[in-house]
Write a structure and sequence with these properties.
By secondary structure, this protein is mainly beta. It has helices spanning about 55-60, 130-135, 140-145, 190-200, and strands spanning about 1-5, 15-20, 20-25, 30, 35, 45-50, 70-75, 80, 85, 95, 100-105, 120-125, 130, 150-160, 170-175, 175-180, 210, 225-230, 235-240. It binds magnesium ion (MG).
């Protein structure tokens, strides 16, 4: 099942189902053109995992850590499918990072490894947009990772049955493939991440764990059109603009 959060033509926020290209809520149906697609959930926090693919760690000149490298993106980072993200001003390098994101279905803490999938509502696509100019200069990645709209996500939450263990993940910029991998290339699995994270903090329904990016990151430019496609979920699309500094 693909769960879509949207604003209907009357302006009411709904959570319905996306079936083919038809959106269903109760006995109402809408085409995608009739609705505004909203971010698929409203996280109180996004817990991000760094360097969870060995090939990306290598391209950043790092090794895979011996435990998950964690950082946070706050709710101001959320941006929706089909949005236009304004990049931080005056930066040389702000990168794309295609990631599989886990959407949590219930409040949880201290989740054992074997029960971790019980707290997963489903999966979505996320772009962990990263301001390298500042990320490389600060210990806590506030300027680097937590600026407004630094986490476009969507378009839907796909329930776990929709996702193959080796689902393909691909990022395209203006139609050109830049990242291409499979999610079985993770170093730390989704259950391992949930168990580790909830040892330290409570996750709420709608919170997100973003599982790291494969190799192929690169710099965003004004006017770029991004597509992040994960097999079994769909394609998140958004645009990018640089601030008008005139
Ligand atoms: Mg990342």
């Amino acid at each position: 099942m693909h769960i879509i959060r949207f604003r209907d033509p009357a302006g009411i926020v709904r959570r319905g189902r996306l079936e083919d290209s038809t959106v269903r809520f109760g006995d109402s149906t809408y085409s995608m053109d009739e609705i505004d697609v909203l971010a698929p959930c409203e996280p109180t926090k996004i817990v991000c995992v760094g360097r969870n693919y060995a090939d990306h760690a290598a391209e950043r000149g790092k090794t895979v850590p011996d435990r998950p490298l964690l950082f946070l993106k706050p709710p101001n980072t959320v941006a929706s499918h089909r949005s236009t993200v304004t990049l931080p001003a005056g930066k040389q390098r702000v990168d794309w990072e295609a990631e599989l994101a886990v959407v949590i279905g219930q409040q949880c803490r201290n989740v054992p490894l074997e029960a971790a999938m019980d707290v997963v509502e489903g999966y979505t696509c996320l772009n962990d947009i990263s301001n390298r100019d500042d990320q490389d200069r600060e210990q806590n990645w506030v300027r680097g990772k937590a600026f407004d709209n630094a986490a476009p996500m969507g378009p839907v939450v796909a329930t776990p049955d929709e996702l193959a263990e080796d689902a393909r993940i691909e990022l395209r910029v203006n139609g050109e493939t830049k990242q291409h991998s499979r999610i079985d290339q993770f170093f730390f699995s989704v259950p391992e991440l949930i168990a580790e994270i909830t040892t330290h903090l409570t996750l709420e329904a709608g919170d997100v764990i973003s599982t790291g990016t494969p190799a192929g990151v690169g710099p965003l430019s004004d006017g770029d059109h991004l597509e992040i496609e994960i097999e079994g979920i769909g394609t998140l699309e958004h645009d990018v603009q640089t601030p008008d500094t005139k």
